[in-house]
Automatic annotation (TrEMBL):
Pfam family, one: SQS_PSY
GO molecular function: metal ion binding; squalene synthase [NAD(P)H] activity
InterPro entries, sorted: Isoprenoid_synthase_dom_sf, Squ/phyt_synthse, Squal_synth-like, Trans_IPPS_euk-type
PANTHER family per record: FARNESYL-DIPHOSPHATE FARNESYLTRANSFERASE, SQUALENE SYNTHASE
Organism in which the protein naturally occurs: Botryococcus braunii
SUPFAM superfamilies named in the record: Terpenoid synthases
UniProt-recorded name of the protein: Squalene synthase-like protein 3
GO terms, biological process: farnesyl diphosphate metabolic process; sterol biosynthetic process
Family: Belongs to the phytoene/squalene synthase family.
GO cellular component: endoplasmic reticulum membrane
Key words of the record: Magnesium, Metal-binding
Amino acid sequence: RRKRKPQDPNLAWCWETLIKVSRSYVLVIQQLPEVLQDPICVTYLVLRGLDTLQDDMAIPAEKRVPLLLDYYSHIGDITWKPPCGYGQYVELIEEYPRVTKEFLKLNKQDQQFITHMCMRLGAEMTVFLKRHVLTVPDLNLYAFTNNGPVAICLTKLWVDRKFADPKLLDREDLSGHMAMFLGKINVIRDIKEDVLEDPPRIWCPKEIWRKYLKDLRDIITPEYQKEALACLNDILTDALRHIEPCLQYMEMVWDEGVFKFCAVPELMSLATISVCYNNQKVFTGVVKMRRGETAKLFLSVTNMPALYKSFSAIAEEMEAKCVREDPNSALTV
């Protein structure tokens, strides 16, 4: 873990900002080898700017497309900041040149790594500004577009620094599964918020929700509680199929800190599935893990045997929640 606050005031600001926008991500970054901590902190803030641009609904989609495609070309420009910003990200965007200053202090290899990641991710992000999620393959692609390029680029970084098996470079599919699992959890967790948007942002595939509902907005309507839960459990069950490839990926990570950086978010995602499964509160409020449970899981991930033990415990907990009446219960189990 990082033992002290950076002496450089600008770098210190970057870490403080990271804590504000994603406290949980700070914890996993601090598990990395020290040589990677500052570059990954800067990487996260650069990508957060890109993600904020993608999600800024005040900018028409047709205007966001060229901005996303061109984002990577500006990240070394000290006079530039993303033309967006809302909510908790306003300060980050307003002070974005401070991120650029730290980006320019990185070595050329790390700068190229971040630039390539932004170029690839920005292009992927434009896809679903112009199309809807209708099928499960569409959902796979959507989940990949928001996380896949990052997972692939990070994998190359691990291998280049000799923190992971070089064979991972030939298995982009495993990086993709790591990304899709995280992406699908975000879709599930945010379903109420997205449905309430005007107009609704629908990332749940029509192929799934039409089996239970005539209109996805009915998923938050009390009289459709039974159908809504069946739909929720169907989406959750689809996400579970990524677990085995995720475990294969993590078996090929050598460094303990990098392993923890990769494993903790995946384990938290499985725990989130368990909390959300057959849980009506997904449609009425915010479903979160308790802080104590989160800390316990975080501390439990030290190696593959420990990870398998934690995965197994969560799977057993989820199996106990399965109800025979659910149309997908056999597949879930």
